[in-house]
Write a structure and sequence with these properties.
mainly alpha, 2 strands, GLTP_sf, Glycolipid transfer protein, GLTP
Length: 206
């Protein structure tokens, strides 16, 4: 795993191929979330786990990337029906399949876990990452994980780097790191809220 290179004066957010801040949301079409930009942003987010630095986070990263792939595969199979995430899932379910829709369910859970952990940590300057991630895990992924998976994720929480070491890797200007992350996480939270409501709705059930 190569060390992330952050340009001078920039923060980790600038290294993302796609930011959640720039993912189009069509408010007039039921808050439809643009598929390509959303999947690119979710994929970009996983580089955060590289900065966390521990192989213990590999299962978290791989799980999210696997779910992104399920959605991309469906988009490639039926591009005309997949302009936004919600339509992609609705049209897949019409075919009596749910691979991508199930992928979205787990991807949203993974994004919510990451968003809650980082948002809580940014908001509490004295809290260590391990504590923020442990709390977020308990309220997002843990209730859905089997007894075989829980220890794997618990190990990842315990392997979090020290707070100072982590934030130093996100950019030289710590005030800018905090402000960039705050804006980024607010955009992520908005999309998670929209898609969580969708995956929990009747039309996303299989």
């Amino acid at each position: 795993m190569s060390a992330l290179s952050i340009p001078e004066g920039a923060t980790i957010v600038h290294t993302f191929k796609q930011s959640f801040v720039d993912v189009p949301i069509d408010a007039e079409n039921g808050n439809a979330v643009a598929t390509t930009q959303f999947l690119d942003a979710a994929e970009s987010l996983t580089t955060m786990f590289d900065v966390l630095g521990s192989v213990a986070f590999s299962p978290v990263k791989n799980d999210m990337l696997g779910n992104v792939k399920k959605l991309r595969d469906r988009q490639l199979a039926a591009p005309a029906e997949s302009g936004n995430i919600q339509d992609l899932c609705r049209n897949e379910l019409k075919t009596k399949k749910h691979t991508a829709t199930e992928g979205l369910l787990w991807l949203v859970r993974g994004l919510e876990f990451t968003c809650l952990a980082l948002s809580a940590n940014v908001a509490k300057p004295t809290e260590e990452l391990a504590d923020s991630f442990r709390t977020a895990y308990g309220s997002t992924l843990k209730p859905h994980h089997s007894f075989l998976i829980k220890p794997v994720f618990s190990a990842a929480m315990s392997a979090c780097p020290y707070r100072n070491d982590f934030y130093t890797k996100l950019g030289a200007d710590q005030e800018k790191v905090t402000s960039d992350l705050t804006v980024y996480l607010a955009a992520l939270q908005k999309i998670v809220t929209i898609l969580k409501a969708f995956v929990e709705s009747k039309e996303a059930k299989w």
